Amino acid sequence: MDKILFQEQREDYRNESGVLIEGIVPDWLHSGVFFRNGPGLFQVGKTNLNHFFDGYAKIQWFHFSTDSKINYSSKFLDTDAYTKAIRHKAPFYSEFGTLIRPRNPFLWVLSRFHPYIQGFSDNSNIAAVDFNDFIYVVSEGLTMFRMDLTSELVSPQTIKKVNLKSTKECKNFIVTCAHWQVDRSYQSAEEIRKGSGLEESSKMYGFAINKSIGFRSLFQKTDQTLFYLDKLERPTILAKIPMKGHRFINYNHSFSVTPSFVIFIRQPIAFDVLRMMRTTFFGRSRNFADCLVMERNTFATIIIISKTSGKILARVSTEEPLFTLHHINAYEDSENKNVILDCVCFTSLSFMNVFFRENLKTYSSSQTILPARVKRFTVSMNKDCDKTYGVNISSADVEFPCINEFFYGKKYNYMWCVCQPSDEATRAKVQSYAIGRINVTKTDSNLEYWYEDGSWPSEPCFVPRNLSPNVEFDKNLAETDGVVMATILCNTGFSYLLILDGETMTSLAKVTWPNVTPGLLIGIHSLFVFPREERSEQNPRHVAKNDMTVSAKLSKYETTAF
Questions:
Q1: Other C-beta atoms within 10 Å of 406: how many?
Q2: Whole-model pTM above 0.85?
Q3: pLDDT tens digits, 365-406
């Protein structure tokens, strides 16, 4: 398993032609781009990065050309973490699972008294967001990379580095949520297809930790800050949620947005500031992953925030010690005055340790890497209610959920995910992970899946047919009418792009790239977009030639180009 996750691709590739090995690629995907982000390099010089989340960011994109070919490209992001590691032939910044001391002896001594002497890594290897006709590549740091959304998509001339720390509003932020949310919940499917994110009122929401660093952090209260960026990347703070105590920095990876609310979970997992200092000063822990702890006898708290006023409207306990990395979806049940929230929930931090290189070497297919379940929480907006209980939607172990993007913030029926069925008979047959589809309106016999022995899928990405400019919009299409895409890495070293029918979960096409060695990367998160030149003049994403372009306006705010 370590060879699958820690596969490296040391070269960059440009427009490598794919070879169709099975089926037919749907023609309505033509001109689209499947974009993936994730780690692509785990060894620099003689130093290995220890954890899967530590690898240096490499973006991959698959361009579906109009001549029925799929061209593959990949590129390392020129982050400070990557460029300095290559220059020094050794990692320069500490990552989640790898603690790095400064190479300069003086700085090595000094770093024991100031753990932040080198700054934080800008290794943006987690997610990507489609907003304002750009793709933003993000992680949990305060640096994001903005890419012009064209058919060429990624070139040195179109990638800009944006540093939130350069703004007054964000100067005290130390970490952000990895998953930003573009507010599309108020739009119809037709409006989303035309292009969300270009209206003057468009916002991209984020959460950040607002806290000083160093010894002061032990005595200063911390808050989770909800803010948003407008079209010109200007931040506005909407709300602040105080954390408990002084010693712990609560960790959050994602949140949800509905037409009226932002839904946030204050979780019982946190970075122990005192342990982080002991790690840096005295080497008491191997890395910062060891400083992530789960607070005992502490339940998660779901917090509902008004998008207009920033006020906290509801705060309810889950009555169980759980945490989530990925929200699936949330929507408003106005008839019963409830908010419905679906999440993938864990009860233990043990899965984090599985992704260390040494632990993966001893992994067997009978083990569960991601022991998480889909839970549904119903939050009453009645002020007298302060508790909610999660209901298991599926008994399968799942992660990396996705849904039809037309249903974000709205009532929905289906989700797709990477899964490991829970019943012993099925698990004996599925010796690797599968791509599953779960009907969230049922709690029994609601899982359908695709798998092949010895094949390990990446996060799936559902592409609805109605998203394509190549077909006429049909408001009557089913929620499952579309395709599911994922990269597949096999135990044999073979890799390919898989396209599934979203309804039947059967294979439509498989495409591989023989010239890409050693193969595709499994990555972490993905999205599918159609470039701007494929959109009509009536499309809100279209920028009129006689107007000042968004790109020109943004040039006032960007910090670094490369």
A1: 21
A2: yes
A3: 666 777 889 999 999 887 777 888 889 998 888 999 999 999
Burial of 298 (0-12, 13-18, 19+ CB in 10 A): middle
| Residue burial 313-335, b: 16+ Cβ < 10 Å; e: rest | ebebebeebbbbbbbbbbbbeee
Q: 229 phi and psi, to 5 degrees?
A: -105, 140
Quote the tokens at residue 429: 């047959």
41, exposed or middle or buried, with CB in 10 Å at 0-12, 13-18, 19+? Answer: buried
- Largest distance between two CA atoms of the chain: 67
25, 508 Cβ separation under 8 angstroms: yes
**Are the CB atoms for 432 and 500 separated by under 8 Å?**
no
**CB atoms inside a 10 Å sphere around CB 38:** 25
String of DSSP letters for 72-107: EEEEE---HHHHHHHHHTS--S--SS-----SSHHH
Q: Are 415 and 440 in contact (CB under 8 A)?
A: yes
Is the preceding omega at residue 518 within 30 degrees of 0, hence cis?
A: yes
Q: Is beta strand 525-529 parallel, antiparallel or unpaired with respect to 33-41?
A: antiparallel
- The whole-angstrom separation of Cα 539 and Cα 62 is 24
In the predicted model, is pLDDT for residue 303 greater than 60?
yes
Decide if pLDDT at 258 tops 80.
Answer: yes
